[in-house]
Amino acid sequence: MLNNIGLPGLLLIAVVVLVLFGRGKISSLMGEVGKGITAFKKGVDDGKKEIEDGAAETAKDVTPEDEKDKV
User: Where does the chain cross the membrane (predicted)?
Assistant: First the structure.
């Protein structure tokens, strides 16, 4: 059903959405979507950094368990 929508159909949908919501509402909605995407990317980067830091902490301590007991 949706694979028959061409450029004229998309333009018609865009015009209808613009008429229904108005330019200001769409502008603010797109701004919120942009903020959401930015926050998501920041969260993903923070998660990666946290995982890498955890891996670095476990990689630092390579002393065997029986050697730790002696010290």
Answer: 6-22
